[in-house]
Amino acid sequence: MTSYTAPLADIRFVLNSLAGLADITALPGFEDASPDLTDSILEEAAKIAAGTIAPLNRVGDLEGAHLKDGKVSLPEGWRQAWDVLVEGGWNGLAFPAEFGGMGLPNLLNVAVQEMWHSANMAFALCPMLTQGTVNAIAGYGSDDQKATYLPKLVSGEWTGTMNLTEPAAGSDLAAIRTRAVPAEDGSFRLFGQKIFITYGDHEMAENIVHLVLARLPDAPPGVKGISLFIVPKFLVGADGALGARNDVACASLEHKLGIHASPTAVMAFGENQGAVGTLVGQANRGLEYMFAMMNHARQSVGLQGLSIAERAYQQALTYARERIQGRPVGWNGEDRTGIVNHPDVRRTLMDMKCRIEAMRGLIYKAAAAVDIAHHHPDATRRAEAQLLADLLTPLVKGWSTEIGNFVASAGVQVHGGMGFIEETGAAQHFRDARITTIYEGTTAIQANDLVLRKTLRDGGAAIDGLLADIAATADRLTAHDAALAARLGAATQAAKGSVRCLVGLPQREAAAVAVPFLELMGTLVGGQMMAEQLIAAQAAPSDRFLAAKSVTARFYGEHVLTRIDGLAQLIQAGAGLVMALDEDLL
Amino acid sequence: MTSYTAPLADIRFVLNSLAGLADITALPGFEDASPDLTDSILEEAAKIAAGTIAPLNRVGDLEGAHLKDGKVSLPEGWRQAWDVLVEGGWNGLAFPAEFGGMGLPNLLNVAVQEMWHSANMAFALCPMLTQGTVNAIAGYGSDDQKATYLPKLVSGEWTGTMNLTEPAAGSDLAAIRTRAVPAEDGSFRLFGQKIFITYGDHEMAENIVHLVLARLPDAPPGVKGISLFIVPKFLVGADGALGARNDVACASLEHKLGIHASPTAVMAFGENQGAVGTLVGQANRGLEYMFAMMNHARQSVGLQGLSIAERAYQQALTYARERIQGRPVGWNGEDRTGIVNHPDVRRTLMDMKCRIEAMRGLIYKAAAAVDIAHHHPDATRRAEAQLLADLLTPLVKGWSTEIGNFVASAGVQVHGGMGFIEETGAAQHFRDARITTIYEGTTAIQANDLVLRKTLRDGGAAIDGLLADIAATADRLTAHDAALAARLGAATQAAKGSVRCLVGLPQREAAAVAVPFLELMGTLVGGQMMAEQLIAAQAAPSDRFLAAKSVTARFYGEHVLTRIDGLAQLIQAGAGLVMALDEDLL
């Protein structure tokens, strides 16, 4: 059993010094977001995360979710914790007041969600999916749909799901076969099976609002024939009252490596007369709507990478301080000291810590870009911010989740033999983390997005802009730390070389080194984030927290940024060989 | 449910072309090891691994080991499989004929054990521990102890365990507190608790022979006061018949992340009148005896890294061939093709494959060195081989297990969402692999061994010899593949720079970058192994298997060897910063 304490000092530092919270709250629409309010929200969220949600993490892993007699039960205490979020209005933090939300910045919401995910990733998936459902309906739903569903989803009285995947349609959504048949009243009847549906069924909320991708009878084949539907678990009357049970049921739950308490459902639509649904937006544009929401969903999963890393780090650090074992090499201190003073344990902890702080920088910066893209009065600034958010999203998702796995594994290692024993809890983070590089698009899909859509398509123009920004950071850094500045500058040059190499390759070869390029770019932008934090920290060098930040930034430079040369060499050399072997010789 | 097929083509290639099986079988003592015999042993082992042991892997994971009413039960089928090994004499493959063994080379045994571990890691731990027990008694036991215990352990009718760890004594064996009190008849009574005892109790064999580290009453403190004892589960009479139950009991079993069917026991010695034991060798030299056996135990765990990687690779490859999903980028082939033709899936599979073949080269080469060190008629050659085995052991254990984890995780990733579902089986390999970087000395302990004992102590002399050998391989490679030769040569130079840097550092700083140095050296020696395989393969370039070997070797050069520069930069720059932060600022 391990505890969680929200890292408020670092969260505040990154919000203020790097992500520009003050600039964000000054945007039109955020007039209520005073420093006092944002600060008390962070404080209160930290209390709920530590006191209410985190203590359920282990019981969630042990009990898991179960389907019995057609009902999905969640672990003891789950519902009470959800009620706390509903009563506090936490689900509506970043949604407009017209639907009952608080109208606060996405950036602030990301900081709060970081705490939820650190406290209990299996639990936090429920608000995450519900917020995604709100985004879809708010963005593309009719006024009627908005009025019917949004207030209850924003409050969290109802929860939401995304129904994309089918047995033969995973990453390849073009293969979707679920059918939607028009009914005489303008609604539709859906028939088909969806798999991997997170929080597909449970009893924690009065109703569940399913967003479902399906094909109309006259739809063209492939991705241009997919429409988006709302299918509620209980039908909703014109007066808003809940009516009959809809023809949608949880057929089974998956037995998973991790996030045991998050019910991952096989959902059966239309086993009887057909599941009643309504069309969202226009027919055959469902995939387009889903992709428009991808930034949010992918940034959320990237955030899980950060969150699970933070949790694993806290647990490993606590263990390393408490576990006494031998005299560290060359140690001059007290005889009985924790393994935290063994050189390799310390190296591992520093490696975890610097990556966590780099991830936090990247993710919060991307979250701020989303606020600017939506709220800035100047259209040019909005477009620039959207471009940046689009470019950073595959890094947020792809890189942070890989690092989340890396850090969770390091957390097990710090525990030695105890890390392999389930009671310790370190192994749960390792298991939970493993899904993050897979769902909402695997790392390879993020890398293809970065390389094929966002680098090759414009000949590298957008990414050159990002690299120029990093080069500018390196220039500013020179006055503060010439060695780190030189390392960041050289890494930026290596990245430029990789971009030039990529844009000259056929698509197939570029895709073959897309994941190494994503790792390179994530590592580089992480380096920029640490450089920016070092510069900000040196404004008050006598502060111990800020002095530590400078050491951590330098450590990142020496232990993480140093990987970039090798990745650049790989990209330069290795694209051609990937497909060189006849398949039967693998 | 997944199958396993022993990769006999690659095993034979590495045995013959790299590890020099013909030279090993020509050594004195291996007169019976004809090519026909060794080959039929490989064929038969492959059948048992695939047909008998591998089918129990999933049931082992699901059922696990259980303690009830003082008895430890293993999964259905476990005992029958063990009987197959006993009846075939498989446990005695590499042991002398005088104790009932076959007297065959360690190298051949390693190839067989690779198949056992791939088939079922939790199962294969039992023969592994039993063989370790044989080595200890054969090396340091009295004639009486040998006569009493070895025939039954060599046959596998009895199994063996190593009892080192206690709650406060993990990596730090100096802290051992188990007591051994002399009895009037010359035997001892042991009192204490041991934890993490693999196959500490079960009903698969008639008797279990525990090797136990404990302190005599007059023992000096620390590592120089630890003695080694034999404590059988059932006392053995002078006639060899089993007598009374000894005062040793399984107090509980751990709930672990993986290897569920391997019973990891808390063992209670002397809860009543004291557990009867006999001293092995001289008093207070127990740790020395244990360390003398470390090469075998650590090479065996390194082998598990290879084995689990091979199993994960086979499963991922099968899935990638069968799973149809979308049209690969730039694909000109048939419409319905497996994801094996998606560029990143192919890159991942190649990355797994090339590391597996590099590991097999390293591990088999180290195994051959052990045979030479024990059997070569020339003392100088024996000493050289022992030096090489000592130098390679931390790489075999430290690097191969890290790579085993990396490959098992990649195997999950290839499966996408299915990889996270336990039924698929990919997740079990990922969970099972996780222990290998921890037990028998964590990666950090291997790295300290490599850096502090085997690099700093002789000023880098031994490792310079290894680097000269790699440079010679690079020279010979030039005629076959100049580009790979240049890459291997440059990597060797970078490693030399790292060695020079390390020998100039204080111990504490050298230990702080020991794990990156181990990764560097493992990667480099892996490169040498692939280079040697490429050279050997080019002897018959028209053979498709051998042609594939050349591609795989080049892939290793471009995708794996390229990491070395960054590791060398890290070692050059990063040792000082590891301990720079005050501990409370972590």
UniProtKB/TrEMBL annotation, chains A, B:
Xref: PANTHER family: ACYL-COA DEHYDROGENASE (PTHR42803), BROAD-SPECIFICITY LINEAR ACYL-COA DEHYDROGENASE FADE5 (PTHR42803:SF1)
Acyl-CoA dehydrogenase/oxidase N-terminal domain segment(s): 75-157
A UniProt-annotated Pfam family: Acyl-CoA_dh_1
Cofactor(s) needed by this chain: FAD
Catalytic activity from the UniProt record: 3-(methylsulfanyl)propanoyl-CoA + oxidized [electron-transfer flavoprotein] + H(+) = 3-(methylsulfanyl)acryloyl-CoA + reduced [electron-transfer flavoprotein]
Acetyl-CoA dehydrogenase-like C-terminal domain ranges (all copies): 466-582
Alphabetized InterPro entries for the sequence: Acyl-CoA_dh-like_C_dom, Acyl-CoA_Oxase/DH_mid-dom, Acyl-CoA_Oxase/DH_mid-dom_sf, AcylCo_DH-like_C, AcylCo_DH/oxidase_C, AcylCoA_DH/ox_N, AcylCoA_DH/ox_N_sf, AcylCoA_DH/oxidase_NM_dom_sf
Known role: Involved in the assimilation of dimethylsulphoniopropionate (DMSP), an important compound in the fixation of carbon in marine phytoplankton, by mediating the conversion of 3-(methylthio)propanoyl-CoA (MMPA-CoA) to 3-(methylthio)acryloyl-CoA (MTA-CoA).
Molecular function GO labels: flavin adenine dinucleotide binding; oxidoreductase activity, acting on the CH-CH group of donors
Keywords: FAD, Flavoprotein, Oxidoreductase
Record's protein name: 3-methylmercaptopropionyl-CoA dehydrogenase
Organism from which the protein derives: Magnetospirillum moscoviense
Enzyme class at the top of the EC tree: oxidoreductase
Source organism, top-level taxon: Bacteria
Taxon lineage: Bacteria, Pseudomonadati, Pseudomonadota, Alphaproteobacteria, Rhodospirillales
Residue stretches making up the Acyl-CoA oxidase/dehydrogenase middle domain: 162-267
Family: Belongs to the acyl-CoA dehydrogenase family.
EC number: 1.3.99.41
Domain Acyl-CoA dehydrogenase/oxidase C-terminal: 284-450
